[in-house]
């Protein structure tokens, strides 16, 4: 005689619901100023900007402008988060100069007037 499976389909549904809820909660927790990208990864992607971030008269490399433009388009608050991060401080980034890079790159849709620390995006 075959035995009937015990339990109810409600239990399986409840477990599935809990697993899905946990996965979506983890995604929400992981999403920050740079979305799901860690700030350190976003900072490393901006490495072409190092020379321009320390010298207001330095020409901004095209690779830097491309990276900054893409970052502003996808996660505008991420640029400020990167510039205020401990990693930027360790790299010797001058926030007052670095905040001018979007303007120096002639990025039209930059967040003009937005505060980043004690500086405002020009």
Explain what this protein looks like in three dimensions.
It is a single chain. The chain has 8 helices and 2 strands. The chain has helices spanning 9-30, 39-45, 50-54, 62-74, 76-83, 86-90, 95-98, 101-104; strands at 115-116, 119-120. α4 (62-74) crosses α5 (76-83). Mean pLDDT is 79; it is low at 8-30.
Compile the SSE list and pairings.
Elements: H1 9-30, H2 39-45, H3 50-54, H4 62-74, H5 76-83, H6 86-90, H7 95-98, H8 101-104, E1 115-116, E2 119-120
Antiparallel strand pairs: 1-2
Low-confidence stretches: 8-30
Structural class, please?
A: mainly alpha
What best-fitting shape do the alpha-carbon axes yield? globular
Q: Give the N-to-C terminal Cα separation.
A: 80 Å
Q: How many helical stretches?
A: 8
Q: Mean pLDDT across all residues, rounded?
A: 79
Give me the Rg, rounded.
22 Å
- Main β-sheet, spatial strand arrangement: 1-2
Q: Main sheet?
A: 2 strands, antiparallel
Query: What is the string of SSEs from the N terminus onward?
Result: HHHHHHHHEE
Residues in β-strands, percent:
under 5%
The total of beta strands comes to: 2
Helix content: 55-70%
Protein name: Non-specific lipid transfer protein GPI-anchored 15-like
InterPro entries: Bifun_inhib/LTP/seed_sf, Bifunc_inhib/LTP/seed_store, DIR1-like
Domain Bifunctional inhibitor/plant lipid transfer protein/seed storage helical: 34-116
Keywords: Signal
């Amino acid at each position: 005689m075959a035995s009937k499976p015990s339990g109810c389909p409600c239990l399986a549904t409840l477990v599935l619901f809990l697993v899905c809820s946990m996965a979506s909660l983890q995604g929400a927790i992981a999403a920050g100023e740079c979305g799901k990208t860690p700030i350190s990864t976003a900072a490393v992607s901006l490495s072409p900007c190092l020379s321009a971030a320390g010298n207001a008269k330095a020409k901004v490399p095209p690779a830097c402008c491309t990276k900054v433009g893409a970052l502003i388009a996808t996660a505008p608050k991420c640029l400020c988060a990167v510039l205020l991060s401990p990693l930027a401080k360790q790299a010797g980034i001058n926030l007052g100069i670095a905040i001018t890079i979007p303007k120096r790159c002639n990025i039209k849709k930059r967040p003009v007037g937005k505060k980043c620390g004690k500086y405002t995006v020009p």
